[in-house]
């Protein structure tokens, strides 16, 4: 087998791995958002505000530290957390 065919097979396997990891990410997000909805219902029942700046700051520190330890750029991690947080707030309001 020539080098190009070997490389193509390896690429195909790696791309399948990426698809698997992307599915894991989506499952993790779905699980997270399920918890977010529970938090929103609980906050609503007891009259707590949706935003909790102290909790957000603690969570951001944990999230960004973990990202850094995993070798994920802080810029990407910050953008991801911002997106997740905005979606979480939207879900808790509805």
Task: Fill in the keyword field for this structure.
94 residues, mainly alpha, Chorismate Mutase Domain, subunit A, 3 helices, 86% helix
In terms of topology, how is this protein built?
Elements: H1 3-46, H2 53-69, H3 74-93
Helix pairs in contact: 1-3, 2-3
Could you explain the architecture of this structure?
Helix 1 crosses helix 3 and helix 2 runs antiparallel to helix 3. It contains three helices and no strands. The protein has a single domain (3-93), classed as Chorismate Mutase Domain, subunit A, CATH 1.20.59. The chain is mainly alpha-helical and 94 residues long. The longest helix is centred in the first third of the chain and has 44 residues, at 3-46.
Radius of gyration: 19 Å
pLDDT averaged residue by residue: 96
The fraction of residues assigned to DSSP E strands is under 5%
**What gross morphology would you assign?**
elongated
Which structural class best describes the helix and strand composition? mainly alpha
Portion of residues in helices?
over 70%
* Top CATH class: Mainly Alpha
Distance between the termini: 57 Å
CATH hierarchy: architecture: Up-down Bundle
Q: How would a crystallographer describe the biggest sheet? A: none
Q: What series of H and E elements makes up the topology? A: HHH
CATH topology: Chorismate Mutase Domain, subunit A
- Overall number of strands: 0
The CATH fourth-level homologous superfamily: Chorismate mutase
What is the overall number of helices?
A: 3
Poorly predicted parts: none
Overall tally of domains: 1
């Amino acid at each position: 087998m020539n080098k190009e065919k070997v490389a193509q097979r390896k690429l195909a396997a790696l791309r399948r791995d990426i698809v698997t990891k992307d599915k894991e990410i989506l499952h993790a997000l779905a699980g997270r958002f399920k918890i977010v909805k529970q938090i929103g219902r609980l906050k609503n029942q007891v009259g707590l505000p949706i935003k909790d700046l102290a909790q957000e700051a603690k969570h951001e520190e944990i999230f960004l530290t973990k990202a850094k330890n995993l070798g994920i750029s802080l810029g990407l991690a910050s953008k991801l957390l911002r997106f997740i947080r905005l979606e979480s707030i939207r879900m808790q309001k509805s």
